[in-house]
Structures are given as structure tokens and as C-alpha cells.
């Protein structure tokens, strides 16, 4: 499963933001364990560096960004993505860029705490809790299929 994580999900983890860190950390853990294929929009990386520098300092920000780059695939932001975003029905250009970067690299879903910002979405958008439940159901289904074929 290829999933684009919204900037806010990563910030929840890196800045230990309560009450959101629990579910967001579980999702990042699934990426780290390679149970889901995680994607970040290229603009997420620059935004994270800027915000983390302000909150944690340059050294910590650089370490965090380096770790993210080793764990996640990066969804491109190019002329096609920007063109789709600027001409879309999204109210927020940044959300549109993030969404279309995921569409461009063909993710299966986007996960965010702000589902209302993605009403114009043509592919599934989940909250962290919704995606964790969907992943659990998918995993259980895969185990049942394996058990059925083994019999």
C-alpha cells in the first residue's frame, strides 16, 4: 500500500504533539517497518526543515530530515503537479500541491488529520485512525487468504 503522509502527521511525531502523536507515530512506524510504502511531498521536506529549525534548531532539524529521507519516498513537485494544483477545486494551494504530488506518483491513499481540506480528492483520504483500522483489516484479510490457500 502506497500512502502519502500529510505534513501534519510528521510534525505530530517530530514535535511530540499531543494528543495526535500516538496514531501518527504508529503510521510512521509502519513505514519504518516497511509494512506500508510511505511518501512525502517534496514541499513537505522543505516545510519540515523550516519549522523544525525554529522549534529544535538546525542540527536537530537536519538529523530529522536526513532520517525522513532514508525512510520515505519523495513525491515530486513539478510543472504538471503545480498546474493541476492551481487549476483544481482545492481551496488551499499547498494542500492541492501535496494531493497532486501523490496522484502523480500514484499513491493508494493520503493520510491527514484535516480530511475536510481534501473534499476534491479522487483517491482515498484517511485520518490516521481510519488508515490504521483499514490497514488492520487488510492485514487480517491477507492472513485469512493465506490460511485458506494453505488448507
Report strand order across the widest sheet: 3-2-1-4-5
Task: Tell me the number of structural domains.
Answer: 1
Task: Kindly name the structural category.
Answer: alpha/beta
Spatial separation of the terminal alpha carbons: 27 Å
CATH fold node name: Rossmann fold
User: What is the CATH C level class, in words?
Assistant: Alpha Beta
Average pLDDT reading: 92
Largest sheet: 5 strands, parallel
Radius of gyration: 16 Å
Please provide the count of β strands: 5
Please write the string of helix (H) and strand (E) elements: EHHEHHEHHEEH
Helix content: 55-70%
- Total DSSP helices: 7
Summarize the structure.
The chain is an alpha/beta fold and 151 residues long.
Explain this structure:
- This protein has one domain: 5'-nuclease (Rossmann fold, 3-Layer(aba) Sandwich).
- It has helices at about 5-15, 20-30, 40-55, 60-70, 80-85, 95-105, 130-150; strands spanning about 1-5, 35-40, 75, 110, 125.
- It contains 7 helices and 5 strands.
- The chain has about 150 residues and is an alpha/beta fold.
- Strands 3-2-1-4-5 form a 5-stranded parallel sheet, with helices on both faces.
List the helices and strands and how they pair.
Layout: E1 2-5, H1 7-14, H2 21-32, E2 37-41, H3 42-56, H4 58-71, E3 73-75, H5 79-86, H6 93-104, E4 109-111, E5 125-126, H7 128-150
Parallel strand pairs: 1-2, 1-4, 2-3, 4-5
Salient structural properties:
7 helices; 151 residues; five-stranded parallel sheet; alpha/beta; Rossmann fold
Amino acid at each position: 500500500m502506497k500512502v502519502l503522509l500529510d505534513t501534519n502527521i510528521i510534525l505530530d511525531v517530530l514535535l511530540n504533539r499531543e494528543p495526535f502523536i500516538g496514531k501518527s507515530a504508529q503510521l510512521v512506524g509502519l513505514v519504518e517497518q516497511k509494512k506500508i510504502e510511505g511518501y512525502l511531498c517534496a514541499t513537505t521536506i522543505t516545510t519540515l526543515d523550516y519549522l523544525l529549525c525554529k522549534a529544535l534548531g538546525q542540527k536537530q532539524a537536519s538529523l530529522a530530515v536526513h532520517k525522513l529521507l532514508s525512510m520515505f519516498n519523495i513525491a515530486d513537485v513539478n510543472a504538471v503537479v503545480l498546474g493541476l494544483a492551481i487549476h483544481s477545486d482545492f481551496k488551499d494551494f499547498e494542500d492541492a500541491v501535496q494531493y497532486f504530488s501523490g496522484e502523480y506518483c500514484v499513491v493508494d491513499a493520503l493520510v491527514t488529520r484535516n480530511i475536510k481540506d481534501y473534499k476534491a480528492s479522487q483517491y482515498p483520504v484517511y485520518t490516521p485512525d481510519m488508515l490504521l483500522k483499514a490497514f488492520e483489516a487488510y492485514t487480517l484479510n491477507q492472513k485469512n487468504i493465506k490460511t485458506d490457500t494453505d488448507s
